[in-house]
Amino acid sequence: MTRLIVAAGGGGDAVAAAMLDAALYGGDDQAVILTYAWDRLLIDPLPGPRGADNFTGLEPLTPAVWKVPAEARPIAPAGSTLPRLAAELPHTFALIDARHGAEGVTRQIEDLVTHLKPTSIDLLDVGGDVLARGDEPTLKSPLADSVTLAACCQVNAPIRLLVAGPGLDGELPHEDLRSMLGPLVHTFTAKDVEPVSPVLEWHPSEATGMLAATARGVRGTCEVRDAGLPIPLTDESPTVHEVDLDEAVSRNELARAIMSTTTLDQVEALSREVCGFSEVDYERNKALWLKEQRPARLDAESALPQLAQFEADARSRGITHTTFRHLTEVLNLNGSQRDDLRRLLINSQPERYTAPLWHIPATT
Question: What is the reported pTM?
Answer without folding.
Answer: 0.96
